Amino acid sequence: MTRKDQIVAATAKVRELLLDKNDAYGDSALSPLNIFSSANAEYGIRIRIDDKLKRIKNVGLDDRTEDTLLDLAGYFILLMIARDEGYNLHKHIREGEPSGDHSATSTTADQDRGLSYHS
After folding, report:
1. Rounded to 5 degrees, what angle do the CA atoms 73, 43, 79 make?
2. Label partner for 38 (CA 20 to 30 A): which of 46, 102, 108, 114?
3. Nearest residue to 17 (alpha-carbon basis) of 79, 71, 81
4. What are the DSSP calls for 29-90, one per residue?
């Protein structure tokens, strides 16, 4: 198997995991219910990443944590999507376009980009 084939196979695993979990959990990572927490999607995903990293720190990398590596890869992709959606939301707000079903709360990603929407 070539390196390219290995990359294709590994990313296919992550893609399938993301799609399966998104179906099973109803897009909860990127569209949280906010019943017990008011955290936005990006912050919630960052917490999940921290939890997975803590598991690796406590257990190490072995057969027991192989699924944790896949979860991390998936959460990093979701974090990229959340940051992109947050950026696009605030761009639409600046341009006066309808914002849809999102909160206009500034995030760390906004601050990284020099954006702030608090009054």
Report:
1. 30
2. 114
3. 71
4. TTS---SS----HHHHHHHHHHHHHHHHHHH-SSGGGHHHHHHHHHHHHHHHHHHHHHHHHH
